[in-house]
Amino acid sequence: MSRVLIFGLLLTTCSIAFASDPSPLQDFCVADPKSQVLVNGLVCKDPKLVRADDFLFRGLNLMGNTSNNVGSNVTQVTVAQVPGLNTLAISMARIDFAPMGINPPHTHPRATEILTVIEGRILVGFVTSNPENRLITKVLEKGDVFVFPEGLIHFQKNIGHGYAVAIAGLSSQNPGVITIANAVFGSNPNIAGDILAKAFQVDVKVVDKIQSKF
């Protein structure tokens, strides 16, 4: 087998291994939400039925409601909102923060995130995987950009005196989100209290109290 062929096979293998979403094989594959067919992703709509609105989202200029326990709101623009994103391996979100509001520790299992601060001053950070669990953190000003690698736990906090806004780009049409506190303490059904007590090195009563809040 020639070196060129071997090199080509390696490149192909690497591209498949590192791709979060499958690459498109046509100009577009607008998602058909009415289809009953189950695939890894979403079934394509008949191209003849595709319209401009399949690629459109309106309202990202509007502030989200931050009147909640964490003081933030995420407006998602994924394939669920824009069917034309299907197979394009990209999505975005607007994050609004009340003063001292947070986007609590969470992870995107299928996407790297790149965040741009539009307004305000935001503390951001992510934690590396075991065994180091190193916290990498930075204070961002208006116009700053920060990257959160795929799958790593990360967070944002508004440390300014007013409201803050950020725009995030994500490397998947459906990045997914797992909010750590909700997943651990608000699972359905609950994770057994003795398991969480041992994991967090606290009394079971503490776990019960936290679980009651979710």
UniProtKB/TrEMBL annotation:
The UniProt record lists the keyword Signal: yes
Subcellular location: Secreted, Extracellular space, Apoplast
Residues reported to bind Mn(2+): 106, 108, 113, 154
Disulfide-bond pairs as recorded: 29-44
PROSITE patterns for this protein: GERMIN
Domain Cupin type-1, first and last residues per copy: 58-208
Gene Ontology molecular function: any one: manganese ion binding
Predominant location category: secreted
Keyword terms of this UniProt record: Apoplast, Disulfide bond, Manganese, Metal-binding, Secreted, Signal
Residues at which oxalate binds: 103, 108, 113
Listed GO CC annotations: apoplast
Pfam families according to UniProt: Cupin_1
SUPFAM superfamilies: RmlC-like cupins (SSF51182)
Signal peptide boundaries: 1-19
UniProt similarity note: Belongs to the germin family.
Name recorded for this polypeptide: Germin-like protein
Organism name: Deinandra increscens subsp. villosa
Source lineage: Eukaryota, Viridiplantae, Streptophyta, Embryophyta, Tracheophyta
